[in-house]
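User: I'm writing a tutorial on reading structure tokens. Could you give me a worked example: one chain, its sequence, then its tokens, then a sentence or two explaining what the tokens reveal?
Assistant: Sure. Here is the example chain.
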Amino acid sequence: MALVASPLFTVQPRLGLLLLLLVTAWLYAPVGGFDYINWDDGRYVADNPWIEGGLSWRGIVYAFSSTDPFLMPLVRLSYMAESSLLGMDAGHFHLVNVLFHLANTWLLYQVIFLATRRGWLAVLMAAVLALHPQHVEAVAWITERKEVMSGFFGLLSLWWYVGYVQLQQEGQGSSHRVNNARAWSVLAFCASLLCKPMWVTLPFVLLLLDFWPLNRLNVGWKKLLWEKQLYFLLSSVFIMLTLVTFSLDGAITNTASMPWEYRLNKMVLSYGEYLWKGVWPFNLALYYPHPMGNVSSLTFWSVLGMLLAISVLCWYKRPTMPHLLMGWLWFLGMLFPVSGVVEGGMPIGLADRWT
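And here are its predicted structure tokens:
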């Protein structure tokens, strides 16, 4: 990764990052002794003959052609490779999830530092990812490797994109080097979607990065949109694939059983819950029941008013504090696919792993 190998940070933030990684590894080390759980681990790993059979050409074909509604071929391949190398003991499956989580912590630091040149800010944001209780579920649940793997490749895509922009701005490389950086970013984005199509909103996140901290709006919206055409194309393809596979499996909830009124109510309440649990992460659970319209008007309008107030404040402060608007829109945009507008599978209010 010569792209970001230059001495961009001082020793102190680097030591802070190292300490953070060690603390995170220590906190998650016990999962190596955990077993499978009886929610999806059997179906996707423990009792799956394709995983038990290990990595093979037939297994590769299965991984990419499975009719399961969840598109995660790269995750299946990782399970198969582990089964071939280490067997089917649950412990190593857990520990590989932890390794991805550590890698994501390191990558988030790199992305933020490369974009802002602020070492301790990057350490703080990496710490939120590494240590926040809402993120335990995605790491300590074998089936949810799709979360940490999609996050890994999504952050790689961001890393390469920021590098691509800075190579352009600073004139540090040939056009070939610049194009290579963008190509790696697109490939990493595609890999993220092949783990889980959660990052379909990444093209919009890149536009937010262009707003702040990359400060590229002077380039012009047409050029900014045009350079992201491959990202938008990949997002469109995976949105369609996901809708088709869920429809074929009967997992898409239709508007007759889940009217739009309920979906919009759930979307507003989900954003409010995610925001509250982000600030006050207590009473977390594996399953949160779907509200199904059983919410008082006072609660709904209170939450909606709070979200609108935050939005207005961030917009008003954008000339002097652009990071507020960028961060708020990032939060709203990245959670939009799981906000409740499209319902699939078991009716569920929200999930900590999606954060």
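What the tokens reveal: The first helix runs from residue 11 to 28. Residues 4-9 have pLDDT under 50 and may be disordered.
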